[in-house]
Every structure is written in structure tokens, then in C-alpha cells.
Write a structure and sequence with these properties.
By secondary structure, this protein is an alpha+beta fold. It has six helices and eight strands, in the order ββαααβββαβαββα. Strand 3 and strand 4 (80-91) form a beta hairpin. Helix 1 crosses helix 3 and helix 4 packs across helix 6.
Length: 205
Amino acid sequence: MTNIIQPQFRTGPRCYLRPLDPRTDTERCYLWMNDPEVTRWLLRHTHIPYPAEASWVADVAKERPTTHHVFALVLREHDTHIGTVGVHDIDWLDRTGTSGWVIGAKEHWRNGYGFEAVMLLLRYAFTGLNLRKINSSAFAPNVGSNRIHEKCGYHEAGRRRLQFFRDGSYHDEVIWELFAEDHARVWEAHRPQFEQPHIDCAREP
């Protein structure tokens, strides 16, 4: 296959966000969404047929996304695609949305990429899309996800007790919410690392 030039839509210190590309990303997403370790704490926890995953990638990669803005999460070093992040269920009247992310490449877990990716996503949601509030949730045992929520400025709004069944037990769902002004304070604290000089140009994998 001829190399495809990919844009860097939002760039951080170690990773960047770019649009999902059905030509290059579908197979990886399909494999990730059928890996029980990856989907353990996701709502999509049953097997996903390839046509269904291909249809989902194609849908979120449409020319003009409306209620969903989904991106590939890519490491700047070697342009390695390691996951996806997105704002879903956008309500343009209420100016709200729901954040979600997954790092499917397990060899890159526990390296802090989730925090960096979500910070880039939230910056886009609040300053690019002009949303005022982002909602989210996580399984209570998913320590990494809950820590990212806290670090990015989300506040715990409540819990749905014993909401989901995984690994033979029922688990609480932690409900998170984040207003633009709260995230702005977190962004200011981390601004130096996110706004260091780097080139936002197209790269060729």
C-alpha cells in the first residue's frame, strides 16, 4: 500500500490526535475491540464482527461529523496508532458531550498517554467546539480511568451502585462531569508541557 500522509490535528508532548482513517485504522480497531483485556471495563464488551467495526469507523470518519468527534491517538515517535479518543452524544443546544477513550495497544498501557490524550481532546471540545460541559463515567475498579478523570479536572457527580456485571461481580459506575472553566484551570497548570514548540505538520508513516 502506498504511504498515506496523515495530519496532526492536535499535538501534545508525546502523542497527537488525528482523524480516524478507515483505510489504515479499521483492522487495529477491530482487533482491539475483540480483545477481552482491552474491553474489560468498556460498555462494548461482547465480540464485534468485522463488518460492524468497519461500519463504525467509517461512520465516525465522515467528512462532517455532527454528534461524534472521534480521533486516532498516535505516538509522535514512529507515528504508532495506539488507541482512540472522542467526544460523543454532542448536544449543540445544551453544549454538552460525553468523553470516551481506549488505549488498545496494551504494550503502551501505564505510560501516561491517556492523560495527555484526554487533555488534548478536552481542549478541543471546550475551545474548538465551544462546548461548556463534558460528561463521562467509569467502572469503579478501573483505577487508571478514574485517576485520569480526576487529573483532568472532572468532579465526581455520583455513582450508580452495582450497575455493571464483569468478572463474576457487579460493580459501581462512577459518574464524572467537567465544566469548561474547571478544565481551563487544569490546562493553565499544564500549559508549558502542552504548548512547547513543536511542528504541527503532516507526517508520512
